[in-house]
Task: structure prediction
Amino acid sequence: MLKRILIIMIVLNLGTACSRVSKKEKIEFEESRFYNSYSSWELAELAKALEEHKRVYGYTPEVIKFRFLLDQRAEAKEKLEELIKKIKKELVDNELTTLKKHMSKSLRNTTTLDKLADIDFTKYRVFVSKTSFEDEVARNIVALNTGEETFYFNVQFKYENHVWEVVKFQERR
Result:
């Protein structure tokens, strides 16, 4: 009789232990899904997944962590959008002040800035593509159009220390 009771207790204990493991695995999966949305800058999807996770599991450390990271990413994205608008406006006004300020210091970028300083941008219309994000890097394409010809530039931004920096401003060939 005692043997049967011990066997039943062990089986029940293993069943509850297995259910705890599967719940832990599910939380780890959710966290990795959070990370994928976070690293690809899918902020709306991340916010939705966090709310769903919070509704099911409550405030877990993962929710708190990724909510904080989400707020930082939203702020960073807003800063980049403002920077792009400011650079575009200055290009139209034939100024390079903001671009020079946010351009990383490299030989290629210095040469590019020198070439851009020689161009009269008042004759061009400036177009900027939608920005794509990946980890701490953002990319877009800038087009300068005179009506007859169009010049394209690949632009790459990097987010470090809460500041966006233009690491590549290169003409497409």
Observations:
- The first strand starts at residue 125 and ends at 128.
- The mean pLDDT is 85.
